[in-house]
Amino acid sequence: MNSSPDSRVLQQRFTTHLRTGVRTTIPGVAPDRLAHYRHAIFHMVKDTMESAYPVTCANIPRRKWDHMVKTFFARHACTAHQVWKLPLEFYTYAVENSWDEVYDVPYLSDLLAFEWAEIEVFNMEDVAPAAFVATGDWRETPLVLNPEYRLLSFKYPVHQEAKRARLLKQQGAWFVLLHREPVTGHVQFTGLSPWLAFVTEQLAAGITVKDILEYAPQLGITVTVELEADTVAFLEDMQRRQFVFGFRP
Amino acid sequence: MVGLGFRREFAEEMISGTLISPDFIEFAPENWMNIGGYWKKMLHRVVEKYPVLCHGLSLSLGSPEEPDSTFLRYVKSFLEEYKVRIYSEHLSYSKCDNAHLYDLLPMPFRMDAARHMAARIRKVQDYLQRPLAMEIISYYTPVAPEMSEADFINEVVQRSGCQLLLDVNNIYVNAFNHQYDAKAFIAQLPLDRVAYIHMAGHEQVAPDMILDTHGHPIADPVYALFEWTIQQIAPVPVLLERDFNIPQMQDLQAELTRLKAICHQQWKHHELVA
Ligand SMILES: [Fe+2]
């Protein structure tokens, strides 16, 4: 009878050790070389997270950060074939496991979401916009937006501030728009008021400025001439910045 | 044909082609698929200029579990879209218990593993409708071996009908780290199956250990082993891999030129025939 385990079991033992550090002995495997693999893999994962999340990593004490990356890699089965997508799994894992509380970094998920969104918008597959013309009526014509964007909402203003004490003092409702410039591929960030975030969301759904303004009172918003002018001025600015492409023909 | 691995760090230089002009490029589909924006434009520009070979990283054909069919579908359409001439992968695995480890791990050199891997390669070849060129990886420890590495490779190649990607630096590094003779090892391989060659640099980090870094120029003894190796086989594309510690383009071009000169010298008979 052959008592030696089959290759599948050996591979499972080998990789379980590499991920978790749980002690294992496999015939022929030199301990120092096993350590080399474990070190190289962890270094690579950590490096990937630090390039994806430079602000988060700088904001968190080093031991805490290392512990996060170790825990993530040991407990989470990474599914991304593409290494650049691995940071998304880290962010998702942090949210699912309530790391804001576990690690006492209340703005952690905001910060990870913010840093991930930049990578995502920069790399996202090209999306063809709807047909548009350059001129139209800002109030009455449905607008055509740049489809390569993400609108994020945060509890903490992580797009403006990195210091813990200051972030914690500014808990509220914050909105940031990220969009990719069509020609250069650069990602632009725009902080939005709750009103402009709402407007952006509605415009993306094909609602006109006029209809959005008409609906506003139901949200408890008083529509003034000033609000209307500011809204249009914002959209004109966003056209210059290539977030608003134009008007539906 | 002597090519160069395409990297973001020197994408501009490769597209302009003034300081460096390889005969072809190679990249990992994983690093470029499902990407838009700036890098998609750059990819299109480089692909217009050079023939493309692809070198996969994450198929993990030595894994206990089945290959990811969604991913394979993407690979297939990517290879078609970019008219990829050779798709290579590794005699290795990088995924286990459905978790990717993002490293090329050493296979247990055992009959069950060889059979399993060969079956997986066959399946993927059938699906992609092309042979895979499987690279002999550098590795730092054996894992419960019951057969020699060369026997393992022969078994996989014979059973799967795959081609071989001979990374001469890997073999040099393995021969040093596991104390065997590189030429004797190469002589045991099914050399008629070699479809592609890789060359790269390494670094000795301990008296008994060389790391396959892809971060240094090709070492002289690896050139020598390359020169000997290509005398044993018919002409195939040769690739220079440089992933870290990127030098001046002139230095990379000098390595390409040196490889080309060796190919020309050793394969001139074939060139005349062709
Ligand atoms: Fe290689």
Automatic annotation (TrEMBL), chain A:
The keyword DNA-binding applies. InterPro entries: DUF2063 (IPR018640), DUF2063_N_sf (IPR044922), NGO1945-like_C (IPR054098). Residues 146-238 form the NGO1945-like C-terminal domain. The keyword DNA-binding applies. Keywords: DNA-binding. Transmembrane segments: none annotated. One of its GO terms (molecular function) is DNA binding. Residues 10-93 form the Putative DNA-binding domain. This is Putative DNA-binding domain-containing protein. It comes from Chitinophaga eiseniae.
Automatic annotation (TrEMBL), chain B:
This is Uncharacterized protein. The lineage of its organism: Bacteria, Pseudomonadati, Bacteroidota, Chitinophagia, Chitinophagales. Coiled coil: none annotated. NCBIfam families: PRK05409.1. Pfam families: MbnB_TglH_ChrH. SUPFAM superfamilies: Xylose isomerase-like. InterPro entries: MbnB/TglH/ChrH (IPR007801), Xyl_isomerase-like_sf (IPR036237). It comes from Chitinophaga eiseniae.
